[in-house]
Amino acid sequence: MVLVLALTACTVTQPTETAATDSEDHETADPCADAAILDWDNFGHGFVIEHCNGCHAATARDRHGAPLDHTYDTVEEAWTHADGILALAASDSPSMPPRGGVSDDDRVRLFWWLGCGTTGR
Ligand code: HEC
After folding, report:
1. pLDDT (0 to 100) of residue 8
2. Is the dihedral of CA 42, 116, 9, 87 positive or negative?
């Protein structure tokens, strides 16, 4: 259920070329309308290092069972798995990281990055 919601939110918000301007009606609430412009360099890299790569780095000493094909060492890898990351880590009841510890603000930022940002950045 959570997964479905997150993926839906994602499809709705796929590449927004220009942010909605204030003069536009917000009848169809765009979750990206007020999004900060976040990317790998100003947010993503630090975020995955702090919260994910203890288990998801290719070099993680103890993956705790994290799938070998889910490594987030590069911006390309992160974007390859963007849908899964959003579904499990940026949804309303996130399951990643398994023990939590990500602030609500950072979960919103994660969505702004992978849900609203420029694909591949
Ligand atoms: C303590 C170790 C640990 C941390 C930290 C962690 N994960 Fe995981 N992750 C796992 C394990 C174990 C699995 C496989 C079991 C599962 O899906 O619950 C997994 C699975 C996943 C999957 C699903 C992979 C698939 O095959 O579909 C995604 C997506 C994911 N993690 C994202 C993240 C993100 C994003 C973060 C950081 C916000 C994170 N994880 C932090 C251990 C971790």
Report:
1. 47
2. negative
The pLDDT tens digits of the residues spanning 33-73 come to 999 999 999 999 999 999 999 999 999 999 999 999 999 99
22/110 Cα distance (integer angstroms)? 24
CA 73–ligand 1 middle distance (angstroms): 14
Q: Which of 10, 51, 53, 56 to mutate to test ligand 1, by most ligand atoms within 8 A of the CB atom?
A: 56
* Whole-number Cα distances in Å, 83 to 6, 46, 78: 8, 19, 10
Tokens of 59: 């070099």
Closest CA to 4 of 112, 111, 83: 83
